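To: structure subgroup
Subject: Chain for Friday's discussion

All,

I'm putting the inputs and outputs inline so they're searchable in the archive.
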Amino acid sequence: MPLSFRSPGFNLPIISDRDLHQLMDESVNCVICNKSLNGEGDVVTLKEKGSEGINRASAERFDSITTVPGQQVHQNCRREYCRPSSIKRAKKSVLEETTSSRTRRSFTRKAEQCFSFKTDCFFCGTKVEFGSDSKRKRLGEAFSVTTIETKDTILRICSERNDEWSETIRARLMNVHDLPAADAIYHQTCNVNFRTNRQLPQLMRQMNCLPQKRGKSVAPKMKKKTRLL
């Protein structure tokens, strides 16, 4: 009858004797640091209590490391991984990253809710406004979408790029069927960068990361151009 191991008090998967032997045979690296166990510091063979300690630390760290009795790890790695102060720092780092990620997603949702094809560049999502700033004026040359095939073309490029920027653009385009009918506009610089596999222009990236202030909208000071896209 196959043997099984399960750490008491932890919601860990049951490991059969076959999987256990396979794990032991293939475990040539320390599961904590993923470095070789040969010549990389003192090595210890885990007993049940030691294995449970690492699994408990892994759960507290929101990590995915799982060990079994008989498995070998570096002694220093085990000591540092299970140290309370080290666990506390790891938990703090994970929580801060999670909070930051939620904040970014929340801001992105709010920005997309305010997005308009008539007033915003569908590449960068910022307002198509032109002021006296020569740099912004140079980067902000805008055009109207004039061909219905543009959507399919940009979606194809989104699939080729397969990055965060392309996913944002794809989500916008899926909300509209006919870009010319929606009076869609775009910055020429954003268009060129996207098609040539470059990233957002620095100025647009800075504008895109800041929440826009509420207030009276400013009409474009430069006349919008029409260009075949």
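Points worth raising on Friday:
Residues 115-226 form one domain.
DSSP finds nine helices and seven strands in the chain.

D.
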